[in-house]
């Protein structure tokens, strides 16, 4: 069942009272904002359960994706396993969210249409690291710790050594 395609959107108004669950994947084409952030995901896997009853529907589930981004340290691609979980109240309009306290996470489903792709994409984006990097701190060969390798160390003549060699020349001449 896990290879099934998730619906990109669900018409909650057509669902009977009770719980409705989906498990499957959505292709990366459904995740344009991850792409805009410089990431690439072939697909996102997830499960979503809608609870329909007398009050606002509930929408809970989880999702996983492997997102490839450019490592900030070595600038080569790094694959990041990202997970997310959500437990949301579905409202028709954001104004309806006022009925709940500010900490209650809500998702707006205009005219009862829940955008599943957006819900999953939001969670994956929240799970992305602020600065994508390989786990190996030396993925760039440790270049940053030692500075540019081809920069010569400035050599300054020691004035006392210069003085010493002059003295020796003097003693040589007086002989
Ligand atoms: Zn790296």
TrEMBL record:
Pfam families: YceD (PF02620)
GO cellular component: cytosol
GO biological process: ribosome biogenesis
Keywords, alphabetical: Ribosome biogenesis
InterPro entries: YceD (IPR003772), YceD_bac (IPR039255)
Bias-annotated ranges (Basic and acidic residues): 165-175
Region of interest called Disordered, as start-end residue ranges on this chain: 139-175
Function of the molecule: Plays a role in synthesis, processing and/or stability of 23S rRNA.
Protein family according to the UniProt entry: Belongs to the DUF177 domain family.
Name listed for the protein in its UniProt record: Large ribosomal RNA subunit accumulation protein YceD
Highest classification ranks of the organism: Bacteria, Pseudomonadati, Pseudomonadota, Gammaproteobacteria, Chromatiales
């Amino acid at each position: 069942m896990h290879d099934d395609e998730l619906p990109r959107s669900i018409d909650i108004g057509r669902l009977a009272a009770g719980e409705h669950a989906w498990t499957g994947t959505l292709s990366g084409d459904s995740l344009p904002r991850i792409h805009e952030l410089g990431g690439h995901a072939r697909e996102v896997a997830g499960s979503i359960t809608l609870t329909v009853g007398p009050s606002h529907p509930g929408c809970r589930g989880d999702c996983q994706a492997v997102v490839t981004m450019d490592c900030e340290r070595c600038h080569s691609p790094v694959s990041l396993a990202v997970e997310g979980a959500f437990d949301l109240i579905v409202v028709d309009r954001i104004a309806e969210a006022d009925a709940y306290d500010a900490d209650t996470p809500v998702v707006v489903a205009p005219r009862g249409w829940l955008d599943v792709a957006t819900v999953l994409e939001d969670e994956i984006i929240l799970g992305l690291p602020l600065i994508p990097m390989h786990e190996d701190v030396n993925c760039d060969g440790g270049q940053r710790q030692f500075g540019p390798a081809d920069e010569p160390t400035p050599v300054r003549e020691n004035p006392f050594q210069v003085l010493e060699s002059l003295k020796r020349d003097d003693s040589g001449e007086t002989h």
